[in-house]
Amino acid sequence: METKLTLRLKKKTIEKGKGFAKKRKTSLSKMIENYLEKITQTDDEEITPLVKSLSGVLKDTSNHYKGYAEYLEKKYK
Questions:
Q1: pTM check: above 0.70
Q2: Are the C-beta atoms of 34 and 27 separated by less than 8 Å?
Q3: 33: domain range?
Q4: Is 35 within a domain?
Q5: Cys bridge to 65: 9, 24, 60, 71, which one at CB 3.0-4.6 A?
Q6: Amino acid 50: pLDDT
């Protein structure tokens, strides 16, 4: 069963996502569905570092990323 989901994203992000999906001959909805399926796998498969970083699974407490995280928090408030 398919269910509609509403997301709030920046217009530019949506446009870039649509372009990315189009180049891969898929829809943005399908691409997001595949991404969510991948990051919510419950089996013992190892999730790649790239997927972990994109999903926010890793919490990096190093000063290198802390400054950038603070910058993003201020930028998007």
A1: no
A2: no
A3: 11-75
A4: yes
A5: 60
A6: 76
